[in-house]
Amino acid sequence: MGVSRRDFIKLSGGTVLVASLGVNLDPAKAYAKDLRIKNAKQTTTVCPYCSVGCGILVHAENGKIINTEGDPDHPINEGALCAKGASVWQLANNETRVKKPMYREPGGTAWKEVEWDWALDRIAKLVKESRDKSFKTVSKHKVKEKLADGTEVEVEKDLVVNRTEGIAHVGSAALDNEECYILQKLIRSWGLVYVEHQARI
Amino acid sequence: MTNHWIDLKNSDVILAMGANPASNHPISMKWIMRAREKGAKLICVDPRFSQTAAKADLYAPIRSGTDIAFLGGMISYILTNDLYFKEYIVNYTNAAFLVNPDFKGPSDLDGLFSGYDADKRKYDKTTWTFQMDETGVPIKDLSLSNPNCVFQLLKKQYARYTPEKVSGITGTPLDKLLEVYKLYASTGTPDRAGTECYAMGWTQHTVGTQNVRAMSMIQLLLGNVGIAGGGINALRGESNVQGSTDYGILFHILPGYNPTPNASLVDLATYIEKTSPKTNEPKSVNWWAHRGKYITSYLKAIYGEAATKDNDFGYSWMPKIDVGMNASWLMLFDKMFQGQFDGFFAWGQNPACSGANANKTRTALGKLKWLVNVNLFDNETASFWRGPGVNAKDIQTEVFMLPCCSSMEKEGSITNSGRWGQWRYKAIEPLGESRPDAEIINDLFFKVRELYMKEGGAYPDPVVNLSWEYGEKDSSGKIKHLDPHAIAKEINGYYLEDVYDTKVDPPKLIGKKGDLVPSFVFLQMDGTTSSGNWLYCNSYIMKDGKPVNMMARRGKEDPTGLGLFSNWTWSWPVNRRIIYNRASVDPQGQPWDPKRPLMNWNATKLDAKSGKPGVWEGDVVDGGGGPAGTEKGKLPFIMKPDGVASIFGPGLAEGPFPEHYEALECPLETNSMSKQRINPTIKIFNDQADAFYSCDLRFPYVGTTYRVSEHWQTGVMTRHCSWLLEMQPQNFVEMSVELGKELGIANGETVIVSSGRGEVKAVALVSERFKPFKVENTTVHQVGLPWHYGWQFPEDGSGYDSVNLLTPNVGDANTMIPESKAFMVNVRKA
Ligand code: SF4
């Protein structure tokens, strides 16, 4: 019989099953014990690349991801992954990730590391400045109006728009749904209408 | 996707056209191959002999940008050879509807439809309407013989698309063309299912929407919509691009596809009145008539208690676009180029490489006062000020690079192409000082709001009234850490009061204050319910008095064997796995194909609730009500006001039927189908930076872009992974052996590819996969390049730069998606 790696993992935790199979799985159990994931915390995730949505098992030990592999229980990928999904652990273990906010001043020629609070305070200030400066309350529109005698005329009218013209936003299809929701909620509360993301391109 | 990934296994014929699933959605091939093991046939139509073609039973080449000619020919083939599913189209589409006699089509007007205004590049659609009876319902001719009925008009327009003419335009050899037509049209019988897979190969064209429409029409003619193994399936590019679209991160929609309010919709009542479609068709479910419940529940979700009946639930706090305003991607960057914006957020996206005409985008970024880039990695957008040809000292933009963490360092859900919302868990703490995007959003919310509370400012109301109840607060009232479950529950929605059904006497309690709403049919218009996104109402519900996250489920039952996996995670809407599923049964509710039954109507069984005979068995029925042929029964296309699918679709910019036009940049002087060479309704930008060149000797070859398995989009999340970069280290340009010979370019040589907008280095990949096209009587060469590279990483520049330096910033007439799949280039030795 074929024993998948997932079965090893399951079997190592459940001896009842082993007995009922009627085969000697001692070598398999020994192998499972020796797996370097034996003490790891296992969680499930979904591949962050394409939209097939393959399931991935993530094994972490001491706060570090030590292994990722296709989730054999996932009905779409049944444990398989493509090259991208298979290398997902390199996203978490990656020396080229940015680990601290960076800032580049006007005319500056290099990045410098800054504190989160400083960066976010500064961005909040800039958002407010740009919003206050470019906020448009009304916009002129040609609208049809009925006169007392029933005839229709076209008149120019100020219609309420309450929007910020001076800030734009793009992104992102890389966020979780919950993040997408609060992000659109936030930027619309600031009055942004130039709001776009990957789906448009 | 109307269907979902696993459902591909239920098909008899799978057409991959406008997509290359083997490379770009590799695991989807598992299900395509599973279908093939059962005898299904895979057809691949692609300009290049792609990896999908290598696995296909039938491959046909096509010149980029000529899909409508190809598909129009298939429509004609189906109609002339009587291969359509007559009962389906008569009952479930508008094929039998009579069109306004003043309507004229491309066969009468040489490529145009009636109502064209050349100065405005726009149609007056007055004649694109149906003839109505005295009750306001479209008049039908069920025999499909009236010359004004949709079916006959369809026949008339596509009679011009003869196989010979199509082959001349597309460059597809005649015998291959006919083989594809014959095989695909074989799915027009009730016992056969055909499906289509497309991706950016169809959407990134000036006729993108009509490409998809043409195929949708074929699927309707063959009765392939709403059935297992059928449908029209957009293979979406990013893990959560379905979700981010559902959540309305686009200028024209709010979450759940409610339109963005415009200035003429002056209050909530007007918004509801003007955006809720009406119908006089008694059998139409007309689902969008519920718009008022969804928008009111949305306002209650975002403004919470601040939204009251007296203040119109905060409707005036919502920003409004002007009537007819287009704020889409290309317009946004055009405005940025003109200096309209002070500030810009590039959040989890790399526009300096991802948008068409990247040089224009990169120049535009330099006109900003400030730029915030949120990403895992530094990228070409964040570092635009130190990019090739830029003098950093000249760039006055203040730039922030905020590091977010990866998906394994936080918790939440994403929605795949098959509409499955799937929950993911946090495995480790964020790397270094990186943070979940949600935490960055949280901080910005509190910091901006604090400034407005302290200092006041322009119209602070929407800023200070936003509701933000997502977890434990610190002493200053700020949420310490956002709880994704609290957000997911707000999205699902709550009963804000005890809600009663007042139609019965005495009124019956439907929902208890504080409980999660079980599904969107319970949402209310009076402010007594909330829901951040009605489409996701049912994703987090009460079971035995406790909230249950449906998106985290891992049930593996598959009782039908169709692979619906209804207990695995959750699918919108209300966990329905195949939408428009009531089109899978005949008007009496019996499956068209008893071998592949999605559901059926049991006319004698008593309904548990009403006690009356008649219940649906199988998949969750779309929209309720009995089958269309029964008394009070309902038509299957519940989102359409007429209740049927639109073969005649008057909603689009360039006409109710797709017509072949050439790409904006093309190798031909004329369109042999009509005298209208390009899409008559596209917006053409006129700055020098927007240059385009057709039939210009400087740019003689058709260019296209695509992806490889090892990289993803602009490559930010894959170029930084050493395994993947090692496998695909740098930009290449693929060309035929014939073209290589003509240019004296050998495989592996470094070359420069140029267009009217820029140039990029690439390694020549001379291969058999491209073949020169015989188009009309000339030879047309096509080349292709992947768009995954950028100057910023690898840092030594060995990957070369983005091929979007070449692509034109012209968009589809409806969606404004740029035409990155067909443009003109030249290739020279470096
Ligand atoms: S593993 Fe590959 S096919 Fe699966 S979701 Fe990830 S990128 Fe897509």
Automatic annotation (TrEMBL), chain A:
Listed cofactors: [4Fe-4S] cluster
Entry keyword annotation includes Metal-binding: yes
Superkingdom as given in the UniProt entry: Bacteria
InterPro entries: Mopterin_OxRdtase_4Fe-4S_dom (IPR006963), MopterinOxRdtase_cofactor_BS (IPR027467), TAT_signal (IPR006311), TAT_signal_bac_arc (IPR019546)
Keyword Iron set for record: yes
GO MF annotation list: 4 iron, 4 sulfur cluster binding; electron transfer activity; molybdenum ion binding; oxidoreductase activity
Gene Ontology BP terms: anaerobic respiration
Location (main, coarse): other
Entry coiled-coil feature ranges: none
UniProt keyword annotations, A-Z: 4Fe-4S, Iron, Iron-sulfur, Metal-binding, Oxidoreductase
SUPFAM superfamilies: Formate dehydrogenase/DMSO reductase, domains 1-3
Ranges for domain 4Fe-4S Mo/W bis-MGD-type: 40-96
A Pfam short name: Molybdop_Fe4S4
Localisation: Cell envelope
Cellular component, GO annotation: cell envelope
Quaternary organization: Heterodimer of a large and a small subunit.
PANTHER family listed in its UniProt record: FORMATE DEHYDROGENASE-O MAJOR SUBUNIT, TUNGSTEN-CONTAINING FORMYLMETHANOFURAN DEHYDROGENASE 2 SUBUNIT B
Family: Belongs to the prokaryotic molybdopterin-containing oxidoreductase family.
Protein name per Swiss-Prot or TrEMBL: Tat (Twin-arginine translocation) pathway signal sequence
Organism: Desulfopila aestuarii DSM 18488
Automatic annotation (TrEMBL), chain B:
Domain Molybdopterin oxidoreductase per the UniProt entry, residue ranges: 2-444
GO biological process: anaerobic respiration
UniProt entry keywords in alphabetical sequence: 4Fe-4S, Calcium, Iron, Iron-sulfur, Metal-binding, Oxidoreductase, Periplasm, Selenocysteine, Signal, Tungsten
GO MF annotation terms: 4 iron, 4 sulfur cluster binding; electron transfer activity; formate dehydrogenase (cytochrome-c-553) activity; formate dehydrogenase (NAD+) activity; molybdenum ion binding; molybdopterin cofactor binding
Record-linked Pfam families: Molybdopterin, Molydop_binding
UniProt keyword Oxidoreductase, yes or no: yes
Coiled coil: none
Record's keyword annotation contains Calcium: yes
Cofactor dependency: W-bis(molybdopterin guanine dinucleotide); [4Fe-4S] cluster
SUPFAM superfamilies on file: ADC-like, Formate dehydrogenase/DMSO reductase, domains 1-3
Residue ranges annotated for the Molybdopterin dinucleotide-binding domain, each copy included: 704-822
Predominant location category: periplasm
GO cellular component, one term: periplasmic space
Subcellular localization, as worded in the UniProt entry: Periplasm
Similarity remark: Belongs to the prokaryotic molybdopterin-containing oxidoreductase family.
NCBIfam families: formate-DH-alph
Protein name: Formate dehydrogenase major subunit
Organism: Desulfopila aestuarii DSM 18488
